[in-house]
Structures are given as C-alpha cells and as structure tokens.
Predict the 3D structure of the following.
Amino acid sequence: MSHPILERHLKRSALKPLYLFYGDEEFLMHRALERLGRALIGPDGEAPVKVVQEAQETGLPEFLAQARMAPLWGAGQLLVLRRVEAYPPKVLTAILDYLDHPAARTRVVLLAPGLKARDLAKSPVWSRLQQEDAALGFFHLKEGELQQWLTREAQAHGKTLTLAGAQRLVDMVGNNLADLASELEKLTLFAGAEKTLTPNLVSQLASHSRTYNIFALVDALGEPVAQKRLSALAHLLDLGEEPAKILVMLARQLRLLLRLKDSPAGTPPEALARSLEIPPWKMKDLAKQAARFTAPSLQAHLRRLHQTDQQLKTSAGNPRLWLEWCLLQMGPG
C-alpha cells in the first residue's frame, strides 16, 4: 500500500490533477509515486510520458505550462517536480491558477520533503491542497510502526513475518526503510518455500548482509575485546564493502557519540533522539556505547579515522591492514 488517500482515489477512479507529497520519509514518498505511475498505464500497456525536474533548475510557471502540452494519444503524462518547497510564496500562487484550470491528460506531483505538517496551514496553496484531499504526508515511522510495516511488506511477498522476526530485522538493520525493504526481499528469497519468517531465519541471513554487518561493526566500537571489531570488519570486507564507506560510517557514529556527550545533562531521551535525528529506541544503546568513551578519546579516534583515510588515498599499502590498525585502537577509554 502506498498511501491511504492515494489508494482511496485509485479505488474510486477519482485521481486529483495535482498532488503534493510532503514529509521526511522519502522512501514512502517515492513508493507512492511509483504506485501512481503504474496506475496511469493505459489499457494497451503504454505508460504515461514521465518528466522529472528539480525546482532549482526550472521556474514553476514554466513547469506547469508543460502540463498543457500532453501528447494527444497514449496514456498522457506524469510531471514530477522535486523540492518545490524551495520556491518563495509569491511564486507558489501559480499552483492556485493551475488548480482552477488543470490539464485533462496530465497528472502533476510536487515533492516537498522539507515541508512539515504544521506548514500546510500557513500557506494558502498548501492548505487548499489539503482541503481538496491532495496533500499527502509521508513521515518516518515511529517505534512499533516499523514492525507493523515490515509484516505488511512480508505479506505482499507472500510470507508471514512474525513480530519477533520483524523486531530482529530492525535490531540488525536499523530504521532506514530502503535498507529494511532490501533486506526483507533478500530474506524472502533466502526462505525459499518456507512461509513463515522467524527470528532464526533473520539471523541466518544477517551473516550475509552488508547492511547488517556495518551496523555490527559500528555497535562494536568501544568493546573491550578487539576481536569483535576485527571480525565484523573482516566480514564486511569479504562481502565486498568499500573501505571508504566503512570509514564514513565509523566517523558518523563517533560524531553521534560526541554530540550525545555534549548534550545538556537531564535532557529527556525523546528530545535527544530528535536532536540527534535517530529513532528513540536507539537511545539506550547509544548511551551505553557513549559511556565507554571520554570526549577526548572520541576526538582522538576521529583524527585516527582521518589519518587512515589519508593513508588509503595516498599509500600503496593493503587497505585491510590500515583499517585493522585503526580499529585495534578503538577500544574503551
């Protein structure tokens, strides 16, 4: 399912001429866009002409003018404009003019990932679209919603994913929907004829997953036993992960830990999660990991990652040895 409002319009054959897709969950946004594109395929199997443009590269009136130049035959056209929230309010009024006289053979979708729900009422353009049931919000799923979403995704693949299996998948992969969807697809293939996806199956697949193993490496930072870090690194490299990406993920985690340690004492976990832009359920593990380090040691580790990055770019040495040297020194302290 893409979005309940869009699904309702499709069921009633009552699509709007123009939609606003807004919110911070771009994976679901693009999933809905794909759903709309499939729905516009004609009875003869011909897809609509699709035009995708960036707001920074075209004027809004010029973009909307293209809607009136749809081909006279076929399935019409689908026009998509990204980052529409970048336009100033005065420019956005062109949307109101278009809504008064929309093109018959064109569907327009405006993507605004930077727009929040509270912003709709502040704009006559967005509020009109909301009133006309044409403003569709896509937001990061909250704790608990991820598992429900995964079970529905599994059903679409013809599988039953237990809630415990869904939780195991989230624990191993994280809350990025694109990563979760990719790993779930692999899991359904890995399961073969097995209809029920259990935590055990998830764990078996995880050992072959780059996505999981990068999280395993990150989570191993600060562990007193260096072998855990080295094993996760070896598995990642054996799976073909790029050393540069490994360094980027390690640096991101160290910066998160530094920001957490610099946060004012007594800040509620929910506020910290918003500030760090991570799901609330990750806060407990992050706080536990941060307690293993001092702020100076985290800064020293970041410098060491930078040094390793320079060596990888300039040295003819084995990248695995440089990464191992770096991780050996990333114990607690």
Observations:
- The domain at 235-328 is CATH 1.20.272.10 (Zinc Finger, Delta Prime; domain 3).
- The longest helix spans residues 243-262.
